[in-house]
Specification:
The chain is mainly α. It is 93% helix and 0% strand. It is built from one helix and no strands. It has one helix spanning 7-102. The longest helix is centred in the middle third of the chain and has 96 residues, at 7-102. The radius of gyration is 44 Å and the shape is rod-shaped.
Amino acid sequence: MSNFGSPAHNATMGMGAGMMILAAAGTGLANSLINAQTEANDRRYDAAYGDALARAVAHADSMDRVNDIAMQRVRDLEAQVRSLTAACAQRQGCIDRMKARLS
């Protein structure tokens, strides 16, 4: 070997193991950072999903209350229509009897 005993070669070979350890540590650190960021993103997504779900449930509850009020109003109006229809029929009967007496 032409580089046998060369100080530069010996230094390079000595640093090779250290450089491999540093590379492995750098890769491990990068993976840890990526995992931490992914976990933080997942937590933010879960929190946003939970908030949206809570808002949707609250909205559905309020729409249910609005529906109950609307149905009660429809029942009240239907009762009023029946009452007005009966009153109109009674008045029409009076008008018909009055017309019959006049003729």
